Amino acid sequence: MGIFLNESDIPSAELLHFYVVFENTALGITVIMVPFTILVMVFTSNSVINAYRLLLINELSWSLVLDITAALIGAVSLFPLPCYYGVSVTSALSHTQQLINFVVGIGVLIMKDFSIFYQLEYILVKSLAMDSKIRTLFQIVPKSGVVLIHLGIIVSVLGAVLGPIIYYLPNQGEQKRLFISLDPFVGKLYEDHPDIICFIDGENTAKALIVGFIALSATPFIGLVFLIIMYNSMHQSNGSTHTYRLQKMLFRSLVFQLIAFTFLLCLPVMMLMSALLFQLRDGPTITVICFCFVLMHTPIDCFMILYFIKPYRIVVAHLLKVLQTAAGDAVWLKTGVHVLKGPLGDETEMDIGWVEWGTVADVADDGRRCM
């Protein structure tokens, strides 16, 4: 029995096989869904939601990068140790390259959070009354100033979260020797998985993760506050019926997007961080399960966007109708054989082919006539 980990804490071969297959399948669906959703948005001509469309494209782009990064790592944690090994292609990279990939993945996750936050902000500002102080402030500040303010916020949060993680990146050799000396079972893990990466100095786990954990925990509640303010503003607004319906449509879409974001991204990542911060057992198995949920978020988010935003739903419904009609039509080829008399009285078969276009019903009618 190990001090940090037992053999029973490590996922079984069957679970790891399922994990790899699920990751590859989810990534394949994401790679199809994200470009399709973006194409639908790009080719949907609707001047009212064109600006909001850019925010959606921004979010989906970060989501795609995050899913690719996560799937290529295929991380299996060794929590409560701040280490992991990969079951995907990046496990063949050097330790330095894997650490860079890990830090980039955390940064992409933060950018995805910001992309959803800016959707909330955009709809909130649009739902406010024209004479509200916040809306007046946004109108006074030039667009370049608004962009600089947002960039400043992004850089500050990235620095606050990534700074401690980068600062406490450990020396891999020292961490390996330390953990093996404390727990012989860890030595066996290093023999089986020489690509193990420790991303935090074991003595400073809380210092490295506490800022990110608090920020991630607060994100759903910030979103909920935004939605409540937005809901009240919509019902107090004196805008036209058309404007109200538009705001209601985007509000409904954001509600379901935030629900998916909370249950498929925030909570699983918080569970991962909790397993490390609070030294929970079964950390490796928890990791596998949580990452499966994380990789489900982007396809479901695409579905939410295409379903709840009416102009996009109409385009998708039209495409499905066209595909259904095309699948219902059949192209069939009938080849006839005509027998001719040769000059010596022998019979020669000549194939005379012709193509007839029809439906499946036509083929059935021909079959009945031949009976």
UniProtKB/TrEMBL annotation:
The chain crosses the membrane at residues 26-52, 64-87, 99-125, 146-169, 209-233, 254-280, 286-309. Keywords: Membrane, Transmembrane, Transmembrane helix. InterPro entries: 7TM_GPCR_serpentine_rcpt_Srh, Nematode_rcpt-like_serp_H. Pfam families: 7TM_GPCR_Srh. This is (pine wood nematode) hypothetical protein. It comes from Bursaphelenchus xylophilus. The lineage of its organism: Eukaryota, Metazoa, Ecdysozoa, Nematoda, Chromadorea.
